[in-house]
Structure formats: structure tokens, C-alpha cells
């Protein structure tokens, strides 16, 4: 029961953060889910986007379920806001930034 409450709060806070950003930017064109939950969490994406329906967000249930760690559009055709999943490669990003930092060090 406490675990479900924690997940409900987590999903709610993510939806609130997206909504706050939308207010600050006077709307959004695209919402992108990335990293662990974004890439591998169709259930999480569904719950979060359900809370954002007031912004015109609508998911395509099949596209959302099929998008597991692959780049994909998961919004429905009639969604006012596009929703995508875009995988990340944190290890590659760290390696690239490390190489940049090391190349700037005097030898």
C-alpha cells in the first residue's frame, strides 16, 4: 500500500513538473520521456500522460506499449501535444565529456 502511494506521488510530481514547465513556456509542443523510466516504463508514461490530458496530451496505447528502449512517437494522432520516447546512452555521454575535459588539460 505504501509502495503504491509512493508511485502515485512520484507520477503526480512528474506531471506537475511538466505542467509547471508548460506554464513557464506558455505551452509545449513536445514531451519527451527518456532515461530508465522514460525508455522502459510504459505504465509510468501512461499514468503521467493521463494527468496531462487537460493540456491535450493523448497517448496511443499500442505505440506506448511497443516503445521499449527505442525512439518512438507514442502520442495519438489527435493529441495536441506530441509525446516521444528517446533512449539515452549515459555511458557514451560520460565518455565523450571526459574525453573533451582531458583534451583541454595541459600536458
Write out key terms for the chains shown.
single chain; mainly alpha; Nucleotidyltransferase, domain 5; 5 helices; 3 strands; 54% helix
Structure described in brief:
This protein has 107 residues and is mostly helical. Helices cover 54% and strands 9% of the residues.
Walk me through this protein's architecture.
The protein has a single domain (2-103), classed as 2-Layer Sandwich (Nucleotidyltransferase, domain 5). It is mostly helical. The chain has helices spanning 2-24, 35-40, 42-50, 61-66, 90-103, and strands at residues 30-33, 72-73, 82-85. It has a three-stranded mixed β-sheet with strand order 1-3-2. The chain has five helices and three strands. Helix 1 (2-24) crosses helix 3 (42-50). The mean pLDDT is 91. Strand 2 (72-73) and strand 3 (82-85) form a beta hairpin.
Give the total of beta strands. Answer: 3
Mean pLDDT across every amino acid position: 91
The percent range for strand residues is: 5-15%
Residue windows where pLDDT falls under 50 for at least 5 positions: none
Give the end-to-end Cα distance, rounded to a whole number of Å. 58 Å
- How many helices? 5
Helix content: 40-55%
The number of domains is 1
**Looking across the biggest beta sheet, what order are the strands in?**
1-3-2
Structural class by secondary-structure content: mainly alpha
CATH class: Alpha Beta
Q: What's the name of the CATH homologous superfamily?
A: ATPase, nucleotide binding domain
* Estimated radius of gyration: 17 Å
CATH topology: Nucleotidyltransferase, domain 5
Largest β sheet strand count, sense and barrel closure: 3 strands, mixed
The CATH architecture would be 2-Layer Sandwich
H/E series, N to C?
HEHHHEEH
Specify the overall morphology.
Answer: globular
Amino acid at each position: 500500500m505504501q509502495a503504491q502511494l509512493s508511485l502515485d506521488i512520484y507520477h503526480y510530481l512528474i506531471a506537475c513538473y511538466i505542467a509547471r514547465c508548460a506554464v513557464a513556456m506558455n505551452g509545449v509542443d513536445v514531451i519527451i520521456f527518456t532515461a530508465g523510466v522514460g525508455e522502459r516504463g510504459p505504465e509510468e508514461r501512461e499514468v503521467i500522460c493521463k494527468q496531462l490530458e487537460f493540456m491535450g496530451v493523448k497517448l496511443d496505447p499500442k505505440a506506448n506499449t511497443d516503445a521499449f528502449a527505442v525512439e518512438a512517437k507514442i502520442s495519438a494522432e489527435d493529441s495536441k501535444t506530441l509525446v516521444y520516447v528517446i533512449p539515452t546512452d549515459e555511458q557514451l555521454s560520460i565518455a565523450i565529456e571526459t574525453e573533451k575535459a582531458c583534451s583541454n588539460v595541459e600536458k
